[in-house]
């Protein structure tokens, strides 16, 4: 359910920016989402399809780019991707900690028609 206000904000931000650029419509919006965020692509898409009607964003393609979970080793500072349920550093075996980016969520870009 938290995807509804998130989607409303996406539409508000992008339509405001598009209007300021004198665009006639938004054709594509690229969203970056960290794998540990609780945002569900399908929910955002469904809300977007309904609440973008009548706006510059109506009919725009949503592109979802998921950021993988990366870990950093507190022992040797190695950064490595999380593999299934294994959090251990492949270099020294120490349990890694979640690095930045796993909870990211932002509008990366949008394409418009002028």
Mind explaining what this structure looks like?
This protein is an alpha+beta fold. The protein has a domain at about 5-65 and about 100-114: hypothetical protein PF0899 fold, CATH 3.30.2320. It has two helices and six strands, in the order H-E-H-E-E-E-E-E. The protein has helices at about 5-20, 40-50, and strands at about 25-35, 60-65, 70, 80, 95-100, 105-114. A three-stranded mixed sheet has the order 2-1-6. The chain is elongated and about 55 Å long. The mean pLDDT is about 95.
Summarize the structure.
Helix content is 25%, strand content 30%. It is of the alpha+beta class and 114 residues long. The strands form two sheets. It has a three-stranded mixed beta sheet with strand order 2-1-6. The protein has a three-stranded antiparallel beta sheet with strand order 4-3-5, with no helix packed on it.
Structural key phrases:
114 residues; alpha+beta; hypothetical protein PF0899 fold; 3-stranded mixed β-sheet; 3-stranded antiparallel β-sheet; 25% helix; 30% strand
Gyration radius from CA atoms, angstroms: 18 Å
CATH architecture assignment of one domain: 2-Layer Sandwich
CATH class type of one domain: Alpha Beta
Head-to-tail CA distance between termini? 34 Å
Query: Which structural class matches the secondary elements?
Result: alpha+beta
Low-confidence stretches: none
Q: Give the overall pLDDT as a whole number.
A: 94
CATH overall fold name of one domain: hypothetical protein PF0899 fold
The total of beta strands comes to: 6
Shape estimate: elongated
Order of helices and strands: HEHEEEEE
The largest β sheet comes out as: 3 strands, mixed
Cross-sheet strand order for the largest sheet: 2-1-6
The tally of helices reads 2
What is the beta-strand fraction?
A: 25-35%
Helix content: 25-40%
């Amino acid at each position: 359910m938290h995807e509804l206000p998130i989607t409303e904000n996406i539409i508000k931000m992008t339509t405001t920016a598009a209007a300021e650029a004198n665009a006639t419509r938004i054709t594509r919006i690229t969203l970056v989402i960290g794998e540990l965020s609780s945002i569900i692509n399908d929910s955002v898409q469904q809300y977007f399809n309904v609440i973008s009607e009548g706006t510059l964003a109506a009919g725009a393609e949503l592109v979802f780019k998921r950021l993988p979970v990366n870990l950093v080793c507190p022992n040797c500072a190695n950064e490595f991707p999380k593999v299934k349920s294994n959090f251990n550093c492949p270099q020294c075996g120490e349990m890694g900690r979640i690095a930045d980016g796993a909870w990211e969520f932002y509008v990366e870009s949008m394409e418009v028609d002028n």
